[in-house]
């Protein structure tokens, strides 16, 4: 790009006191363009790499999907798909950004095995979505084993195609699963290089990224302004102003990453993502249905970006993770030099009004590990199963002893201006009988449902009438007692 180049998507040097550096395919990038500029705008309008497409700019279509590689604790690299339209440059600091140009084999008309599988199975027509599918499926091929077709299809749950039809794309995924069966002792990256899924330069990437780790951690200390996690709410809500907004980027801060089992408690750092939750052995050990529940949250690329703190602070009345954590009776730690801790249920004061000052970072979420006999359930009703926000959602933790409920925490979203902890309903359940096969005609359930109705105040909107939401809230509550694993 010529010096002084100005594009409508970001002015060089404006509001960026630090350089952003990352590896774009095989090219080291050091740029003083605004760190709030999206990766999509950088690659398309500053690098003129137009393979990555711009569709919705809202994280919904997947046409802009890129892979972001990050060093893992073993010195290797983990690649995750992200929607570049919502990803600020700051969030790829010190990482490997892979666009379709970085995986195309050299030579006119040459295709990688992923591209070939899509072509051979007639998985593309107009081609607008195809790059996103290619990138997402390349990311699937870089994941550690096992590699099942279910996982391959899950890898493209954030990619929408409006003209081909998904059956042919599904057939292409089957070819890739067959190819990955040949993988033996090699790392996923080594295998992918050998098969031509990615080029040979991927082998040197971990060493290149290691050199950039320390400065990335320093950047937060200097920053002031709007806190940004994954950007999946902010870049949808305020897209036009984000590029130049004074910002404090938290996504890349090692101190805000990680999920820990401290013995009695689980601690989740604020910038842990939904994918981090899904992959956490600590959470998997406690919640057998973790996968089923969290797969209802957005799509793979958004889960790779969406942070837990972002979900809580966004304060949407239907935030899925908020409702999930309310039912765990979680507490949060806020910090602005000094730290304070409060129950999550006391965080919400009114619609989008929080018990939080503008300079407080949500650093940690903590909840007591459920022990003994317990069950935890999350339910969500939305207009479509994936990539949709809830009409009503609900979660419940029930602990039992000798056939009686000894502890209960029930939450629900979409039925009040804030995500609700159902204090009276939860209290009512304590001491009530609990059996694996409950009789929903039992008057206890009718009484509990009546108490629940007294705690909610839904309004009619595009997602449903108030009457419908009341019905949903009741049915989801009852589902906590009848759900099958
Ligand atoms: C396509 C799409 C689908 C989605 N589907 C769902 C869904 O199914 N369920 C659901 O619940 N949500 C969904 N969302 C919403 C969003 O992904 C989540 O709310 C996400 O968790 C927000 O996290 P973030 O890090 O991206 O937030 P950001 O956009 O970075 O920030 C959101 C808010 O949190 C603040 N913030 C961020 N981190 C901190 C911190 N550590 N301390 C203090 N303040 C902070 C920001 O200042 C901002 O006010 C979807 C979004 C998109 C684009
Ligand atoms: S352009 Fe549609 S998800 Fe990014
Ligand atoms: S091939 Fe046209 S949108 Fe998918």
CATH class of the largest domain: Alpha Beta
Count of spatially separate domains? 2
User: What is the overall pLDDT average?
Assistant: 92
Q: Looking at the structure, what is the overall shape?
A: globular
- What is the terminal-to-terminal distance? 55 Å
Main sheet strand line-up:
4-3-7-5-6
Largest β-sheet summary: 5 strands, mixed
Determine the number of helices (DSSP H or I, runs of at least 4 residues): 19
Task: Set down the secondary structure blueprint.
Elements: E1 6-7, E2 10-11, E3 20-24, E4 27-31, H1 39-46, E5 65-71, E6 77-83, E7 96-98, H2 113-120, H3 130-141, H4 149-155, H5 166-180, H6 188-194, H7 205-210, H8 213-222, E8 226-228, H9 234-237, H10 239-242, E9 247-249, E10 259-261, E11 265-269, H11 274-279, H12 281-286, H13 290-294, H14 300-305, H15 308-314, H16 320-326, E12 331-335, E13 339-343, E14 348-350, E15 353-354, E16 361-368, E17 373-381, E18 392-401, E19 404-413, E20 420-421, H17 423-429, H18 443-455, H19 466-482
Parallel strand pairs: 3-7, 8-9
Antiparallel strand pairs: 1-2, 3-4, 5-6, 5-7, 10-11, 11-16, 12-13, 12-16, 14-15, 17-18, 18-19, 19-20
Bound molecules: flavin-adenine dinucleotide (FAD) and FE2/S2 (inorganic) cluster (FES) (2 copies).
Flavin-adenine dinucleotide (FAD) binds at residues 58-60, 226-234, 236, 250, 270-271, 297-298, 302, 305-307, 309-311, 313-314, 319-321, 361-362, 387, 389.
């Amino acid at each position: 790009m010529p010096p002084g180049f100005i594009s409508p998507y970001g002015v060089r040097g404006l509001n960026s006191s630090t350089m952003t550096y990352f590896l774009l395919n095989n090219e080291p990038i050091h740029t003083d363009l605004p760190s709030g500029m999206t990766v999509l705008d950088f690659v398309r309008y500053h690098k003129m790499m137009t393979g990555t497409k711009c569709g919705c700019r809202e994280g919904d279509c997947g046409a802009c999907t890129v892979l972001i590689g990050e060093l893992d604790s073993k010195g290797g690299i983990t690649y995750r798909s992200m929607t570049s339209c919502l990803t600020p440059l700051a969030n790829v600091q010190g990482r490997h950004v892979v666009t379709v140009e970085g995986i195309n084999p050299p030579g006119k008309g040459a295709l990688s095995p992923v591209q070939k599988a899509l072509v051979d199975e007639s998985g593309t027509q107009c081609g607008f979505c195809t790059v996103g599918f290619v990138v997402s499926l390349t990311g699937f091929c870089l994941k550690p084993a096992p590699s099942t077709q279910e996982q391959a299809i899950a890898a493209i749950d954030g990619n929408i195609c409006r003209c081909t039809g998904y059956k042919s794309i599904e057939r292409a995924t089957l070819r890739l699963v067959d190819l990955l069966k040949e993988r033996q002792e090699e790392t996923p990256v080594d295998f992918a290089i050998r098969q031509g899924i990615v080029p040979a330069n991927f082998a040197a990437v971990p060493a290149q990224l290691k050199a950039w780790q320390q400065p990335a951690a320093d950047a937060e200390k200097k920053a002031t302004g709007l806190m940004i996690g994954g950007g999946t709410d902010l870049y949808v809500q305020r897209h036009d102003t984000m590029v130049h907004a004074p910002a404090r980027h938290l996504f890349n801060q090692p101190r805000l990453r990680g999920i820990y089992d401290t013995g009695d408690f689980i601690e989740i750092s604020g910038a842990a993502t939904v994918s981090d939750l899904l992959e956490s052995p600590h959470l998997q050990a406690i919640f057998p249905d973790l996968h089923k529940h969290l797969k209802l949250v957005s799509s793979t690329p958004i889960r790779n970006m969406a942070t837990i703190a972002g979900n809580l602070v966004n304060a949407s009345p239907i935030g899925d993770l908020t409702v999930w954590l309310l039912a765990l009776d979680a507490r949060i730690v806020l910090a602005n030099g000094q730290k304070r801790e409060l129950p999550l249920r006391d965080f919400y004061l009114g619609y989008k009004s929080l018990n939080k000052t503008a300079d407080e970072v949500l650093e940690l979420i903590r909840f007591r590990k459920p022990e003994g006999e317990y069950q935890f359930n999350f339910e969500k009703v939305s207009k479509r199963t994936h990539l949709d926000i809830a009409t009503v959602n609900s979660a419940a933790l029930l602990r039992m002893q000798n056939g009686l409920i000894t502890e209960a925490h029930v939450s629900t979203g979409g039925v009040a201006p804030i995500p609700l902890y159902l204090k009276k309903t939860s209290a009512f359940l304590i001491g009530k009988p609990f059996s694996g096969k409950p009789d929903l005609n039992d008057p206890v359930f009718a009484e509990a449902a009546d108490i629940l109705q007294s705690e909610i105040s839904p309004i009619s909107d595009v997602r449903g009438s108030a009457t419908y939401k009341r019905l949903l809230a009741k049915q989801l509550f009852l589902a906590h007692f009848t759900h099958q694993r």
